[in-house]
Amino acid sequence: MTEDDMGKIASIISRVLNGILPFSYLGLTGELPRGKIPISILEGARREVRGLLGRIDPGLRAKSERMTDESSPWAILRVRGGRAKALLNEATPSDILSIPIGKPCQTYLFDEDGNVISAITVGYLGDEGFVILVPRENKDRVAEWLAGLADGYIIFDRDDLFRKVQGPAVIEELTAAELPPDLQGLLQTVPEPNAAGTSIAEIFSEHPERFDPDKVYFIGQGHLDLSKEDPSRTDFSWSEEEGEPKRTPLYDIHSELGARSAPFAGWEMPLWYTSALDEHRAVRKAAGLFDLGHMGVFQIEGEGATEFLNVVTSNYAGWLEDGHSQYAYLFDPDGNVIDDVMVYRRSRDRYLMVVNAVNEAKDWEWLNGLNEGLYLIDHEIPRRRLRIPVRIRDLKDERGVIDIALQGPLSRDILIEAIGWENGKTLDSLKRTDFCELIADGHQMLIARTGYTGEPIGYEIYSAGEDARWLWGRLSEIGKPAGLLPCGLAARDSTRTEAGLPLYGHELAGPYRINPFEAGFASYVKLHKPFFIGRSQALKFYLNRERELVRFTVESEARPVRPGALVIDRNGVVIGRVTSSVSLGSVQVGMALLEKIDLVPGTGIILLNQPRGKPGRPPSELKEGDRIALPIPARIAPRFPARMPVSDNGE
Questions:
Q1: Are 311 and 386 in contact (CB under 8 A)?
Q2: Rounded CA gap, 212 and 133, in Å?
Q3: 296-399: CATH number
Q4: C-alpha to C-alpha distance for 566 and 605, rounded to whole angstroms
Q5: pLDDT tens digits, one per residue of 542-554
Q6: Spatial contact of 183 and 126, defined as CB atoms under 8 Å apart
Q7: CA-to-CA distance for 39 and 300, rounded, in angstroms?
Q8: What is the DSSP string of 38-89?
Q9: In 3-state terms, what secondary structure has residue 168?
Q10: Which of 35, 118, 354, 460 could bridge across to 138 with cysteines, CB 3.0–4.6 Å?
């Protein structure tokens, strides 16, 4: 390699580095730097590098070349891999998800400016992926474009660098002999006149039959005028209906244990059995057993289940494998949080979704309405709609499936003894957020290593009817000598508050309309997805962060802090309000929404409870005998305690 070669390499590196447009996502540990590059710079650099390598070692060029029939007007590409279908569906304006095996689909690829790269013909091969017939003169550009999209490095939307088309996938060239027999006839057709460079608007007017303008996303979509209202769909609205509190299948057991119960989210639930503090300490030192039978348990199933979840939730369901779960949000089109949920993948086309009791009826109506095409999912492009319907089942209503949570450092040992040592091997292999399905002593259950207490070891167990009653009794019997206590909602609230986890209506949505970026859970909103309901507003939330949820601590001798208390900085400026606060005996711990961001742990603040009942008087009107709120000193604490992982769930 000569000095001139080294200079060329330096020039290539310089052009690539200067061509990258940087951006970042928010992850669990902070900013995740990313970058994208125009395909012209990337492919230009590749060609120059290949040229250098070929000159230095001609054998390398020969190895990379594949013999194809240059006399045919068509080149043949194959796209294969786990996300090949999703890649082509988002890269083209046609409904690739619905094309049958062997039936060709004529469509287009568009570049970052909404101009035609090439007309293509797509054929579905089933498990073998897809074949693409490309006019030979466009082969290299099409192959480079699809490979760039699959790798995720190129710019395909100048207005939104965060977007990625689903990948990865393998792009490779085939010979005519490798084309399936039912598609061989396509090689005898004459390619259409080359439309490269034509605008997507012009192509849409000429060939609307090759477009599915109702798709949730395709490259070039933003260059079409699709803003016309769809009168067949309406905005979602919801109002709660009051009714008699319901009871879980374990209610009589709680009564026998002397539980103090009260209505919560339409259910009569135990608040505590002995004392909230004793139960809190049991979770931290031994184990706590919670009846979460008020939570909603839905099943979403069908061929389009993964695509459905990718559109309706903020996380990326495509990452899940069988036995894995993820935390996610349901947004409306305006970015309002409808709920925070857990999604469990039971199989490729079957998922469990666990929702909050307070939102169960609302979530059911929202999800079913989306599935039936009743509600708008986007205001910018009202035509967007979900294409493949799914089946949504209420497993609590159908089969009486409920959630029992076992949380705390001894929970693994207690659970293994309850389900048997053979099942215990499976349980012991579960990583955080994994789950398994098994039968113990004839009782069926799904056991997930998830929780809402902040404990590193904890499980949420889904079972039905008598299986659930057996499980509660078995865990109680085995765990009692080790210090296990049945726990009510008070301990659930205190443990989640100590751990810094959000409660819907307090640290999510609610009177302050808190979004996940403010709450500290931005990593569960996957802005790389080209579309999900509420994405446009979620991106604005991310780019314009002005508020932040913090944890704080207060010394035990201070007055109890109430939600709604004012937060005041050392200069006497009101900077926020308390959203939750609990007493843990030696200390109070709470969370507050602040108008300031990046306050470091240890920073002193003052909390001022708001007067109950009548509004307080201004100082100038105070007289002898009047009562005023006393300032309560507090300090900012780390967002999450060091010993507790970020949770995967929310109530």
A1: yes
A2: 20
A3: 3.30.70.1400
A4: 10
A5: 999 999 999 999 9
A6: no
A7: 39
A8: -HHHHHHHHHHHHHHHHHH-HHHHHHH-----TTSSEEEEEEESTTHHHHHH
A9: coil
A10: 118
Place of tokens 């999604």: 343
Q: Which residue ranges in the chain fall short of pLDDT 70?
A: 60-69, 613-616, 643-651
CA distance 106 to 119: 7
pLDDT (tens digit, 9 = 90+) per residue, 567-606? Answer: 999 999 999 999 999 999 889 999 999 998 889 999 999 9
CATH topology of domain 497-514+546-637: Elongation Factor Tu (Ef-tu); domain 3 (2.40.30)
Hey, do 66-223 and 296-399 end up sharing a CATH topology, with the first three levels equal?
Answer: yes
Q: For CA atoms 640, 645, 646, 650, give the dihedral sign.
A: negative
* Angstrom distance (rounded) from CA 217 to CA 222: 9
Beta-carbon contacts of residue 219 (< 8 Å; ≥ 6 apart): 90, 91, 92, 109, 110, 149, 156, 157, 165
Task: Let me know: does 519 contact 447? Beta carbons within 8 Å.
Answer: no
| Confidence at residue 647, expressed as pLDDT on a 0 to 100 scale | 42
What residues form DSSP beta bridges with 635?
A: 553, 604
Domain ranges of the chain: 1-65, 66-223, 296-399, 497-514+546-637
Strand partners, 530: none
Contact 464, 401 (CB under 8 A): yes
Q: Which CATH class is domain 66-223?
A: alpha beta
- Please work out, in degrees rounded to the nearest 5, the angle formed at the alpha carbon of residue 313 by the alpha carbons of 165 and 323: 90
- The amino acid sitting at 194 is N
User: Residue 473: which H helix or E strand, with range?
Assistant: helix 465-479
Say whether 439 sits in a helix, a strand or coil. Answer: strand
For 421-437, letters b (16+ CB in 10 Å) and e give eebbeebeebeebbbee
**Four-CA torsion 577, 579, 584, 588, nearest 10 degrees:** -10
Residue 239 CB partners (closer than 8 Å, separation 6+): none
Cα–Cα distance for residue pair 487/414, rounded to 1 Å: 16
Q: Residue 95 contacts by C-beta under 8 Å, 6 or more apart in sequence?
A: 89, 212, 215, 387
Token pair 């307090």 is found at 506
Phi, psi of 497, rounded to the nearest 5 degrees: -65, -45
Q: What is the DSSP string of 282-310?
A: HHHHS-EEEE-TTSEEEEEESTTHHHHHH
DSSP state of 381: S
What are the contacts of 253-261 at 24+ separation with CB within 8 A?
253/469, 253/472, 253/473, 254/291, 254/486, 257/486, 259/486, 259/488, 260/488
Tokens representing 519 are 């709450």
